[in-house]
Design brief:
292 residues; 12-stranded mixed beta sheet; 19 strands; 33% strand
Length: 292
């Protein structure tokens, strides 16, 4: 199942994709559910498991006779998750990305966080920050937690994943390098475009086969699959939840492949007017432009 969060009649709403690749409001699809009108983000949907099951049932029952539908192009997209308790990101999780940055291979996953102010939807314009001159992109697959996860073993980790979306981990490389930690370099306003949709886990046969392709103004910069990660998603969930409890709707950004702007010689940093597209097979294309 594919779920989008967007503005409908000027208000945030949750929509579900039909077999015709159009989107209907969840509340229209499940009009007889008292909770449907209250659900406007993925966190709320995951916190109401019966409603998630009801949505899947209704999609089957409708058999093409759906309520009024919209295409993604007609919608103003919002980040699928509205305000997660945690946005946990993984740095240097692809060997070739480590090599392009001349960085040492870490003995264990490098974690950092982003804040809710970074979240924005597909199609949004991210302002070029006045305090940076080295703006970069990082196309990533983001896993969304489906239930409370604490001290989870790798063997059971995927049971705690609700589904997947796409993140562009926008980074200010100069701030990242000059500070003693990565907060400013990773968490300026708009630095985590997310979307365009949330895809439930049952729609992804093998998450390791998901392919990330990042394009800047049409030029392919990144192209790799999750199979190339040094630490796979089960290992990341075990490592993170050993001491950090994750809640439904929390996000794990799994890391970026080689091909970032900083990896070119000379670097190919982003400029105002640039268009970044992060395409992930089976999920869609997350589009971001850099505003002046």
């Amino acid at each position: 199942m594919r779920v989008a969060r967007a503005l409908v009649d000027g208000k945030p709403d949750l929509l579900v994709e039909t077999e015709a690749e159009e989107f209907v409001r969840l509340s229209d699809l499940c009009g007889n559910s008292p909770d449907a009108e209250k659900v406007s983000d993925v966190e709320a949907l995951l916190a109401t498991p019966y409603l998630l099951a009801h949505v899947q049932e209704r999609l089957t029952q409708c058999r093409g006779d759906y309520p009024p539908a919209r295409t993604l192009a007609e919608l103003t997209m919002l980040a699928p998750v509205r305000c997660p308790h945690a946005i946990v990101c993984v740095g240097r999780n692809y060997l070739e990305h480590i090599r392009e940055g001349d960085s040492p291979i870490p003995p264990y996953p490098i974690l950092f966080s982003k804040f809710a102010n970074t979240l924005t939807g597909s199609g949004a314009a991210v302002p070029y920050p006045s305090i940076s001159t080295a703006l970069d992109y990082e196309g990533e697959v983001a896993a969304v937690i489906g239930r409370t996860a604490s001290k989870v073993r790798a063997a059971e980790a995927l049971e705690y994943i609700a589904g997947y979306t796409i993140m562009n981990d926008i980074s200010a490389r100069d701030l990242q390098e000059q500070d003693l930690q990565w907060i400013r370099g990773k968490s300026l306003d708009g630095f985590a475009p997310l979307g365009p949709v949330f895809v439930t886990k049952d729609s992804v046969a093998d998450h390791t086969s998901l392919r990330i392709e990042t394009r800047v103004n049409g030029e392919i910069r990144q192209d790799d699959t999750l199979a190339s990660m040094m630490w796979g998603l089960p290992d990341l969930v075990e490592f993170i939840t050993a001491g950090i409890t994750l809640q439904p709707g929390d996000v794990i950004a799994t890391g970026t492949p080689s091909g970032t702007g900083a990896g070119f010689k000379p670097p190919k940093y982003l400029q105002p007017g640039d268009k970044i597209e992060v395409a992930v097979s089976g999920i869609g294309v997350l589009t971001t432009t850099i505003a002046g």
